[in-house]
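TA notes, week 10

Several of you asked for a full example with nothing omitted. So below is the full record: structure tokens for the whole chain, then the designed sequence directly under it. When grading your own attempts, check the secondary structure regions first.
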């Protein structure tokens, strides 16, 4: 394994560890009114009180809350609003269901590409009366997927001009 591969493997391991606690939250829905309004309400804080803590107008808070509910607020704004409510704004990007982590995303991508490659080779072999049975094809797909995942790095995500 070269130095770059070791670095990528270490980075993946660290990120996987950091993402693990967040995976349980990936299916939770944000409150329809948005988190800021929900937290502010749970704290018993009026919009005018939050506005005073931020040094802004009441109408600005209502606009922030509306934009958050629409998914159009900036991270910076959310951080300021959270701070004004004595909270911390945290965000994460986590693998979607059904992925268990980054490794399963890589496995799926490598498997899909390996299936394409093996399918092309298998077709050519059948034309030459040297075809493989399904068990051999599946085994070849798995071996090829492992090689692709371990050898290709970022090329695994290439969409244009893929070598096969």
């Amino acid at each position: 394994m070269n130095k770059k591969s070791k670095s990528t493997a270490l980075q993946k391991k660290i990120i996987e560890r950091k993402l693990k606690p967040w995976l349980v939250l990936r299916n939770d829905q944000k409150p329809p009114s948005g988190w800021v309004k929900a937290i502010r309400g749970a704290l018993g804080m009026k919009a005018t009180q939050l506005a005073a803590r931020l040094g802004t107008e009441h109408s600005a808070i209502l606009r922030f809350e509306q934009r958050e509910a629409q998914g159009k607020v900036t991270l910076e704004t959310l951080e300021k609003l959270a701070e004004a409510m004595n909270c911390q704004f945290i965000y994460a990007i986590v693998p979607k269901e059904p992925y268990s982590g980054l490794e399963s995303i890589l496995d799926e991508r490598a498997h899909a590409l390996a299936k394409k490659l093996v399918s092309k080779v298998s077709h050519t072999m059948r034309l030459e009366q040297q075809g493989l049975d399904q068990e051999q094809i599946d085994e070849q797909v798995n071996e090829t997927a492992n090689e692709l995942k371990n050898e290709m790095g970022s090329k695994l995500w290439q969409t244009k001009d893929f070598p096969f």
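The chain is about 60% helix and 0% strand. Use that as a sanity check on your answer.
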